[in-house]
UniProtKB/TrEMBL annotation:
Name the record gives this protein: Pentatricopeptide repeat protein
SUPFAM superfamilies: HCP-like
UniProt keyword list: Repeat
Species per Swiss-Prot/TrEMBL record: Crotalaria pallida (Smooth rattlebox)
UniProt family annotation: Belongs to the PPR family. P subfamily.
InterPro entries listed in its UniProt record: PPR_rpt, TPR-like_helical_dom_sf
PPR repeat feature ranges: 237-271, 307-341, 342-376, 377-411, 412-446, 447-481, 482-516, 517-551, 552-586, 587-621, 622-656, 657-691, 692-726, 727-761, 762-796
Highest rank taxon of the organism: Eukaryota
Length: 932
């Protein structure tokens, strides 16, 4: 057969990067930068969107072989992997876009869907492997297999595919959708025999695992008997039984694996140590500790002798269960079986103690480990530093970090990220920035995690200009390795708010087969969750799973956070349970996210139930979880309960951080318990934690609430003496305190002090001052402040309008009408507070029936009343029921209030809220694990 003319030359040189090879063969006049670093900078600095729509059509070049349907292969539709299309739609029967991979398989059904068997990454590596087979002039094997399913041809193709992943992916394709028929199962078992005979035991185990997983436990005995029958023609007793045992272990069938182990003992074959260790791990995972001890005793009596790995596996399993005493006993038992505890053994125990909140015991374990001659690893220190940072004890974490060089250990990126994250959570952005500069000085390359920690810290707690400057310098400096450039770029787009561009870049990178990690997906999922786009977050998650990426704990936490932000706590709890059933890495952070969500929805019972359930499941709370509980209880007014939690937290060894102290101090201040708040502030100093601006703002606000302005000012002056600069919130608290005391002169003096400190008043400052003047019936002064607000370029908000409207309703009628006209001219937009103001003034004017009448009209348009609205209406109803004669206002005043109420009612009538149901969200939540 003559050579076929290529439609488009394509030589796939690198098996692991098929898509990227295609893109380098584009038209010569289209300039493409080969430098990924330059490409990412261009994306970021110019905010360009990448596009990669390639239409590639080519056949493979064959020599001296006629392959019928294999002679021309069209890949145009396959390489254009748009994840919004290819993953969800299957080609119809007779369509020209039928999947080309079916031409290599003996099962040519019209409804065959290879995408239901392999993911996009597996698809790409199979394509590359098949193209290499044809280029190496081995196409006759493909033709023969296309004509008839033969296990020997299947094994030959799997060997030619070279890589284990590609071979196993093709094996799954070869089984097709008839994998559960008896004939196909037997043929595949023969293929597993042949693979084992050719010393491809790992592929044989993969094949057996696949078959067992598809036929299920009910038919697994058929597979065992067929594999055992006549196995001597291909492999030994040990080989076949080891393959079967590992096959059952791979699919999690522990009881069947134990049966194979028993058969091994019967025929006199000793199982491999690694297989028994895996079986032990599986039994520990499902909590079958009785079988674990029986298996361990069987090993001691009949072999194989336990190794360090076996002991470490058992110690890890009992630590996860909370059995630290048993774990310690196993550690002391190791030398009796010529196994010395190694760094992994000690790391497991140190990690377990840290999880339990016993960081001091973990440090003691570290010291005993060093004295015993076992050198700790970087993971040892990372575990302890992480625990100290979670407890808020960043000072001790830094001391441990600085002592690493003396032990001959060089900090790496992971450890620096751990300490940096601790600084950010403690709101010490300056220390985090210094650590970042130290990383660059020492030549430690940052990664995408570093980027997210620093950018997130500047975004939450730093100034906006610092955040923008850091963002630009971080990218332009080019200090990231090429492998994380795309992760960083996607994260940058997410932090910059360009989510559509981030999704587009993610899809393009996946299409080209370029290097990307779970961090990029987590950045996008987290950004969508923060933006309230939980449906988009779940779509990103589905793409992640379809591309073969395993979700991390950050993935789960971001999905939960998106639901909690919308108040969808019931769905969030359901999602949490589903994740736990699927074996996802659920940690205490997920519970903390839900706990915070319950408190924000004022569901105290739900929060306390979740706290109890968290402990019952063996997930012991850390410092962050304790702090979230303290903060929620304090804001709910349950300050005594919050203080009990605070004492419990301290008693078990957690060091409360500034946020925990501030939350509890705020709770005391809100309840008027200033003495207790001040005592706690002094205790905070004794513990080595310096009060920050938030602490002083809380105390100043507490004094202002009680009208103790002198104490508030003294606290304000103390801030200056210790070197803390007040912020806009500090000044607004003082201005509000003086306005409540009707001391507008002192309030104006505080505003002048703001200017001298280089802080301009914000919308809150103006609103507070206007409310103060309205309270003392000086409406002219209030409108002067309003004019100043507009002149400063600040747009009035609803609070501004409602403040002025409340003053107008109490003012002289003639002036009130003039001021109302001016207010309407400025674009007054009412809300529920506006309605409450007007309804309350109807009651004050002695016409509660008007309040009830307008309330009925508002109900007819489904207006959303709040708690204050119902209180006002209850008052109006009681006034109607009482026989006390009401003092009615003038007819003109009543007419004026009616006029304002009509304007408000008319606005609400014309702008009825339409409840839009997101039809996709419930389906996404219900079906989010379909593709796993």
């Amino acid at each position: 057969m003559s050579n076929i003319t290529l439609h488009s030359q394509l030589w796939l040189q690198t098996p692991l990067s098929p898509i990227s090879s295609i893109h380098h063969q584009r038209k010569p006049n289209l300039r493409v930068s080969d430098d990924p670093r330059r490409r990412c900078r261009r994306i970021i600095l110019r905010q360009l969107r990448m596009s990669a729509k390639f239409h590639v059509t080519f056949p493979f070049l064959l020599r001296n072989h006629s392959l019928n349907s294999l002679t021309l292969i069209t890949l145009s539709h396959s390489f254009n992997l748009r994840f919004t299309h290819s993953h969800t739609s299957a080609p119809s029967s007779g369509s020209q876009t039928s999947d080309y991979l079916t031409q290599f398989l003996p099962f040519m059904y019209s409804n065959f869907k290879p995408f239901s068997l392999i993911n996009p990454r597996e698809r790409r590596i199979v394509v590359v492997g098949l193209s290499n087979i044809i280029k190496k002039e081995q196409g006759f094997v493909l033709k023969a297999f296309n004509l008839r399913f033969c296990p020997f041809f299947l094994v030959k193709i799997m060997k030619l595919l070279e890589t284990r992943d590609a071979a196993f992916a093709f094996f799954k394709l070869a089984l097709g959708e008839n994998h559960d028929s008896e004939e196909i199962v037997q043929v595949c078992c023969i293929a597993a025999h042949v693979l084992a005979a050719q010393r491809l035991q790992l592929l044989a185990q993969d094949a057996v695992s696949w078959v067992i997983g598809r036929v299920g436990a009910s038919r697994s005995k058929e597979v065992v008997e067929f594999m055992w029958k006549n196995h001597a023609q291909y492999e030994s007793d040990f080989s076949v039984l080891n393959t079967l045992m590992r096959g059952f272990l791979n699919v999690g069938m522990n009881s069947e694996a134990l049966d194979i182990l028993l058969r091994m003992r019967v025929v006199g074959v000793r199982p491999s140590l690694s297989a028994v260790t895996i079986l032990t791990r599986l039994l520990l995972r499902i909590g079958d500790y009785g079988s674990v001890w029986k298996l361990f005793k069987d090993m001691l009596c009949k072999g194989p002798r336990p190794s360090n790995i076996t002991f470490n596996m058992m110690i890890c399993g009992f630590c996860r269960r909370g059995g630290l005493v048993v774990a310690e006993s196993l550690l002391h038992l190791m030398p009796k079986f010529r196994c010395n505890p190694d760094v992994y053994t000690h790391n497991i125990l140190i990690h377990a103690y840290c999880i339990k909140g016993k960081t001091s015991v973990a440090v003691e374990r570290l010291n005993s480990m060093i004295k015993g001659g076992c050198r700790p690893s970087i993971s040892t220190f990372n575990t302890i530093v992480h625990a100290l940072c979670r407890e808020g004890n960043v000072i001790e974490a830094r001391k441990l970090f600085d002592g690493l060089p003396e032990m001959g250990i060089t900090p790496n990126t992971v450890l620096c990220n751990t300490l940096m994250d601790g600084y950010v959570k403690a709101r010490e952005i300056g220390q985090a920035s210094m650590l970042y500069e130290e990383m660059k000085t020492k030549g430690i390359s940052p990664d995408c995690v570093t980027f997210n920690i620093m950018v997130g810290g500047h975004y939450k707690y730093g100034r906006k200009e610092d955040w923008n400057r850091f963002l630009e310098n971080l990218i332009v400096s080019g200090c990231f390795p090429d492998c994380s450039l795309y992760d960083v770029t996607i994260s940058w787009l997410c932090w910059a708010g360009m989510l559509d561009e981030a999704m587009k870049l993610l899809q393009d990178v996946l299409e080209k087969g370029l290097t990307i990690s779970t961090v990029a997906f987590n950045s996008l999922i987290g950004a969508y969750s923060r933006a309230g786009l939980e449906d988009k977050a779940f779509e990103s998650y589905q793409i992640m799973v379809k591309c073969g990426f395993a979700p991390s704990s950050s993935t789960c936490n971001s999905l939960l956070m998106g639901l909690c932000r919308k108040g969808r706590l019931q769905e969030a709890m359901g999602l949490l349970y589903r994740m736990m059933e699927k074996g996802f890495p659920i940690n205490k952070v997920a519970y903390t996210v839900l706990l915070d969500g319950y408190f924000k929805m004022n569901d105290l019972d739900g929060a306390q139930f979740l706290w109890k359930e968290m402990k019952e499941r063996g997930i012991y709370p850390d410092a962050v979880a304790f702090t979230a509980l303290i903060d929620g209880l304090s804001k709910a007014g349950m300050v005594e309960e919050a203080y009990e939690v605070f004492l419990e937290m301290s008693a078990i060894g957690f060091v409360p951080n500034n946020f925990a102290y501030n939350s509890l101090i705020g709770g005391f201040c809100n309840c008027g318990m200033m003495t207790e708040a001040l005592k706690l502030e002094k205790e905070m100093r004794l513990e080595g934690l310096l009060p920050d601006t938030f602490t002083f703002n809380i105390l100043i606000d507490g004094f202002c609430r009680q009208g103790k302005m002198k104490s508030a000012v003294d606290t304000f002056l103390l801030m200056h003496r210790i070197g803390l600069m007040p912020d806009i919130f500090t000044f607004n608290i003082l201005v509000g305190g003086y306005c409540k005391a009707f001391d507008m002169v002192s309030a104006n003096q505080i505003v002048n002090k703001m200017y001298t400190c280089g802080i301009d008043p914000d919308i809150t400052t103006y609103n507070i001052r206007m409310h103060g003047y309205c309270s003392i019936r000086k409406m002219n002064r209030a409108f002067i402040i309003l004019d100043e607000l507009v002149s400063a370029g600040i747009v009035p908000n609803t609070v501004t309008y409602n403040t002025m409207l409340g003053g107008i309703c109490s003012d002289i009628l003639d002036r009130a009408m003039i001021l109302t006209a001016k207010l309407l001219k400025m674009g007054f937009i009412p809300n529920v507070t506006t309605t409450n103001i007007l309804l309350s003034h109807f009651c004050k004017q002695g016409i509660p029936e008007k309040a009830l009448l307008w309330a009925q009209k508002l109900r007819e348009i489904h207006f959303g009343f709040d708690e204050i609205s119902y209180r006002i209406l209850d008052q109006a109803y009681r006034l109607m029921q009482n026989d006390v004669e009401l003092v009615r206002g003038t007819y003109q005043k009543i007419l004026f209030l009616d006029f304002l109420m009509y304007i408000t009612f008319d606005y609400f009538s014309r702008n009825k809220p339409h409840k839009v149901e997101n039809e996709n969200s419930p389906k996404l939540i219900e079906n989010q694990f379909v593709d796993l």
